[in-house]
């Protein structure tokens, strides 16, 4: 597991995203984190909370979980782990 807190240089981004299987967004209030666009641009799948930001505008490579529902997130994580 790696995280950035939004502090990657432009040159570090491709290597960072190439190491990832998924991008997990945990925000409860968000207009649309840049990691969503960056991940999609790098062909990565997203795990994103429903009803937060613009994530639901994308239909491919998106796994939505119920915001504030840990069981919903765990269900997705277990499914993705088992599928891998």
Number of helical stretches of at least 4 residues = 3
Mean pLDDT across all amino acids: 85
> What is the makeup of the main sheet?
3 strands, parallel
Structural class: alpha/beta
Residue runs with pLDDT of under 50 for 5 or more positions: none
Report the C-alpha radius of gyration, rounded.
13 Å
Distance from N terminus to C terminus (CA atoms, Å) equals 16 Å
Identify the strand order in the major beta sheet. Answer: 1-2-3
Give the ordered list of helices and strands.
HEHEEH
Shape: globular
Oligomer class: single chain
How big a fraction of the residues is strand? 5-15%
Number of strands: 3
* Percent helix: 25-40%
What does this structure look like?
Helices cover 33% and strands 14% of the residues. The protein starts with 12 loop residues before the first helix and ends with a helix. It is α/β, with parallel strands linked by helices and 84 residues long. A 3-stranded parallel β-sheet has the order 1-2-3. The chain contains 3 helices and 3 strands, in the order αβαββα. The mean pLDDT is 85. The longest helix is centred in the C-terminal third of the chain and has 14 residues.
